[in-house]
Amino acid sequence: MPTGQPLAYRMRPRTLDEVAGQQEVIGKDTALYQMIRNGHVPSMLLYGEPGIGKTSLAYAIAGTSDLPFIALNATTSGKKDIEDVVKESRMTGKVLLFLDEIHRFNKLQQDTLLPHIENGSVVLIGATTENPYHDVNPAIRSRCGEIKQLKRLTKEDMLTLLHRALDDEERGLGKQSIEITAEQLDQIAVASNGDARKALTLLESIVEASDEENGSVVVEDSLVSQLVSRVGVFGDKKGSHFYNLLSALQKSIRGSDTDAALYYTAHLLESGDLVALSRRLLVIAYEDIGLANPAVGPQVLAAIQSAERLGLPEARIPLANAVVLMCLSEKSNSAYQALDAAIAAIHAGKTGDIPMHLRDAHYGGAKDLGHVGYQYPHDTKVGSFGGWVDQTYLPDKLVGTHYYSPIDAGEEKRLASIYRKLESFKKK
Question: Phi and psi of 369, rounded to 5°?
Fold first, then answer.
């Protein structure tokens, strides 16, 4: 084994039985495992965050099958590389192609390869960090019988990998005497956040940076803490995981789970994109809190503007206030749902002419066109509400249509009572 190869590369699983984690995808009880063990490898797409085992799983599948194996990256491979794969398949009858970053597959590559995937002479394993239903060409996707989403490895899976690397004398660090404690390995496993590559790279860096005493490498707590603190664990900024974090944040606030919302906020802040986080928080204020607590929108905007002036790390303070406030506030989506209903009705052709008395009358000749009859509500007082008159505002064809359904939550309960009262006036 070349000494220049990183530990993470050397410790890739050689067969399916060496794969750590991903039991739901490739465990011994899964249909995919049984198919591959029985000699049938289907074309598939592997989707997930960096470092969770897409490439390793592809190599493990190759090691378990008897097919000739070729690995390419879609960002650097050209038409000739694909033609070489096709030539190999003609010589051997069938070839297993691993294509990393498959979402970057260009049309020329596709046109060259698609017929051979179709006839089974090329078995494709594509890997991507992006959602394949959004970013992988449908022509490729339709030819893959399996689309598998891989998950981050658990702490137990990470520890299995770390111990395997420490014990393996052929590919790992087993030939060295290394004094490292269970607590230190726990630190590495936790800091790597389910990313096997980071865990093994971190372990290798710690061993390389440690001093040797009496023939043994002695790992110090201070060194582990120092190197662990440098490990980025927050995913691919602007990739699918980033948008999954934004989605999880909004759903946690909508579900009033303060702790979960703060957890996802922390991840997003550590990604360094203050703009995206701020934009999403402002959307939530109006989409999910809405009329139940109208004061929240301006308060969240003030928190965002404060965060922009402060910059990180102090920006986290006003944003934390905004997140907790929205989590514990009453919730309503009635206003924007009503608008969406109106938009949908317009697209469905449910429209009508603007009543004559509502049309613009601020010019000479408007009266001749029939733009008359409008009653000024401020001239007719209704208790403490202000002014109101019973006149038609919707087009005649739509009179009686309702888009808004008020929710009896927070401040909107008061607004709902006014809405219903005004509706009752119309009926009279």
Answer: -85, -5
The whole-model pTM stands at 0.58
Tell me the per-residue pLDDT of 97-146, one tens digit each, with 9 for 90 and over: 999 988 888 777 878 888 888 888 999 999 988 888 887 888 888 888 78
Q: What share of the chain is helix, strand, coil (3-state, %, to 5)?
A: 55, 10, 40
CB neighbours of 324 closer than 8 A, spacing ≥ 6?
A: 258, 261, 262
DSSP string spanning 44-73?
EEEE--TTSSHHHHHHHHHHHS-S-EEEEE
How far CA 290 is from CA of 280, 333, 378, 406, in Å, comes to 14, 6, 27, 11
Q: What is the pLDDT of residues 305-316, one digit of tens each?
A: 999 888 888 999
Q: What is the C-alpha to C-alpha distance for residues 51 and 197, in angstroms, rounded to an integer?
A: 5
Dihedral Cα 156, 161, 162, 168, nearest 10 deg: 140
Residues in the chain: 428
CB neighbours of residue 346 within 10 Å: 10
> In terms of C-beta density within 10 A (0-12 exposed, 13-18 middle, 19 or more buried), how is residue 362 classed?
exposed
Tokens of 120: 């089974």
In the chain, what are the domains?
Answer: 22-149 (3.40.50.300), 155-228 (1.10.8.60), 240-327 (1.20.272.10), 348-427 (1.10.3710.10)
